[in-house]
Amino acid sequence: MKTLLCLLSLTLSTFAADLVTHAPGDGKAAFTFDKTAWSTDEATRRLPIGVFDSGIGGLTVMEAILKLDAFHNDTLAPGADGVPDFADERFIYFGDQANMPYGNYSAAGRTDYLRELILKDAVFLLGRRMWAAEPHFDKPPVKAIVIACNTATAYGLEDIRKAIAAWHLPVIVVGVVEAGARGVLESKAEGGIGILATVGTCASGVYPKTITSTLGLAGRSVPLIAQQGSATLAGAIEGDSAFPDSVASYALKEARSLAEAYRALNPSKPLESIVLGCTHYPLAEAEIDAAFAQIRTEAAWKDLIAEKRNFVNPAQLTARELFRELARAKLRLKPGEACVLAKDVFYLSVPNPACADVKLAADGSLDRDYKYSRMPGQLEREDTKNVPLTPAMLPAPSAKLLQDRLQAVWSRLQAAP
Description:
It is a single chain. By secondary structure, the chain is of the alpha/beta class. The chain has helices at residues 2-11, 14-22, 41-45, 59-67, 111-126, 150-167, 177-187, 199-204, 206-217, 233-238, 247-263, 285-296, 315-328, 368-371, 396-405, 407-415, and strands spanning 49-53, 91-95, 130-131, 135-136, 144-147, 172-175, 192-198, 225-230, 271-277, 305-312, 345-351, 384-388. It is built from 16 helices and twelve strands. Helix 4 (59-67) crosses helix 13 and helix 5 packs across helix 6 (150-167). The longest helix is centred in the middle third of the chain and has 18 residues, at 150-167. Mean pLDDT is 92; it is low at 4-10.
């Protein structure tokens, strides 16, 4: 363990190595977990699957997982069998709502703090500690972690995988970016590619790099790729009061900016594929498509935007990857086995007003300047706490989006203990 941690220090920043060292413990202290949960193969198989995002956008990935029927459950062979592939599994969802949007940390020069937040998300899923009025320790750990956030995948996927290896845990980790690149490949569209994502995801360059690699390995030529990073659209979709305009208005602004970025590349083919590079964006796909359609009515844009756009939503491919990885690691429940959870559970982070020197906005959220000025390394400081998510905690627009478009998730959220 010590040797592996030394190797980690060569590839991770100091804060990450410190957190990797700090996290294995009794599971009672903040940002720690107890390694005994994975003591046997059977104990590991009976654990739930963890899914996390910076807010509720990752529920689009969870919806795809819950509805997936792409394999035979008995033989694991490809093909639908009429039974959802994860019918017997249970899930823990975590949305780091108090610290969102993740995509803005890089613009504020706080990428190291973002990476710490992402590792802390993984530690929460691995641990038993959660909050009600005070800390409780009855949340089960997980056997798999799905990073249902494009920004978190871009900045934290490798950190989490290296940490899992250092901790010697039989836990698999799946991210959404590789799935999005495979979606571009499988679409077979030949026009230009637009990445609509958060500021942080675009700043990382992870999508152009991964798409270029994926298409190149498949022997495909790589079309022109343009990016547009939004600091507003995810918050608007969630109903954040800091973004008071309609989702449609924000979508129109971002679609026009993406189209302009594509035009600046002097393309010979129209913009055809739009990668929804933030898990919130599938909830507003109709508004985004309508925005491109509106722009295309202008003569200057008719030949630069395809009449029919191909939207790439990484969620379903992420669900397929999760199934394959669980099967490969022999972590799917065996016949007769049941998960330690009877029902899925959902958690959300909220500000912790009891934390010394924490600064809150008028609505009780973390003050924006405070949020984006924090530094990593304060592992004893808990300025947010992770509490059970109930439907009543969701802003009305977000609740309506879930009811209308994510029925499987909405049903399980209502039934959650």
